[in-house]
Amino acid sequence: MSNRAVLEVIALDEQDAVAAQTGGADRLELVTDMAADGLTPSGAGFAAIRAAVDIPLRVMLRLADGFSAGGPEGTDALVARAADLREAGADEFVLGFLTPDGEPDLVAVERLIAVLDGCRWTFHRAIDRAADRDGLRKALADLPGLDTYLTAGAATGVDDGLATLKAEAARAGEPGYEARVLVGGGLRLDHLPGLRAAGLDAFHIGGAARPEGWTAPVSAAAVRTWREAVDAPLS
User: Fold this and answer.
1) What sign for the dihedral angle of Cα 151, 155, 159, 160?
2) Distance in angstroms (rounded) separating the CA atoms of residues 59 and 79
3) Which of 111, 51, 126 has its CA nearest to residue 79?
4) CB neighbours of residue 159 within 10 Å
5) What φ, ψ does residue 102 adopt, rounded to 5°?
């Protein structure tokens, strides 16, 4: 990717993927079942989208709503799905699990990234539910492939997380803060100027790409509006 800001769009199927790429998305997050906040797609679903577009695809590894890996059995199932997706050609992923007390579930995460075998991956919004964000970042800092945190800065969304996002952006490059911050979760166009001025340069949208709601496909025109806003010169 070039030095321009990254725009990532959630895609559920090939139609979404083509519209998002047409609108100017740099990358897609592939999920199913947004009623459960986004779960792992099938290998066939991934392959169909991979054949339809040529931009990077990050595939969600998550089999149930919430931020638990589901214990040893749930982790076994995730590992199997990750292996199937790797075999189908997936090479970028999204994952993130917490223990019941809000600590990073390193057992589950490390088992999964062993299967990913060096692929790049995003730790998703589980960070916004962590008991200790800074501690989580430092615990994950040396894991291979981790290059992005998807975060709103707060569990309730970007409106409440702005100060945290800007503070973390200011720490870029420090231990635990090397990964890129991808801002998502209630993100609106009016948030962009302040976030970009703070040095944040990666943005993730789901519902914002679907003006008619989650039952309707991604709108290429809506994505184009975001592309133009993300690329607009800062005044």
Assistant:
1) negative
2) 13
3) 111
4) 14
5) 85, 15
Return the exposure string of 204-227: e unless at least 16 CB atoms fall within 10 Å of the residue's CB, then b: bbbebbbeeeeeebbbbebbebbb
Q: How far apart are CA 149 and CA 31, in angstroms?
A: 17
Among the listed residues 176, 126, 186, 118, the one whose alpha carbon sits nearest the alpha carbon of residue 150: 126
- Residues 179, 67, 117: CA angle, nearest 5 degrees: 50
Whole-angstrom Cα distance, residue 155 to residue 182? 15
Between CA 104 and CA 112 the distance in angstroms is: 13
3-class DSSP string for 128-171: HHCCCHHHHHHHHCCCCCEEEEEECCCCCCHHHHHHHHHHHHHC
Q: Which residues share a beta bridge with 123?
A: 95, 149
AA letter at 70: G
pLDDT of residue 1: 42
Question: Which residue stretches of the chain have pLDDT < 70?
Answer: 1-2
CB 23 within 8 A of CB 220: yes
- Rounded-to-integer distance, Cα 145 and Cα 228, Å: 30
Q: Give the pLDDT score at 235.
A: 76
Find the farthest-apart pair of alpha carbons in the chain and give their distance in angstroms, rounded: 52
**Beta-ladder partners of 30:** 11, 59
Dihedral, 44, 45, 51, 52 alpha carbons, nearest 10: 160
C-alpha 5/C-alpha 98 separation (Å) is: 29
Other Cβ atoms closer than 10 A to 170: 11
Q: For position 36, what pLDDT does the model report? A: 83
**Residue 130 C-beta-side C-alpha neighbours within 13 Å:** 25
Structure tokens at 84: 């199937």
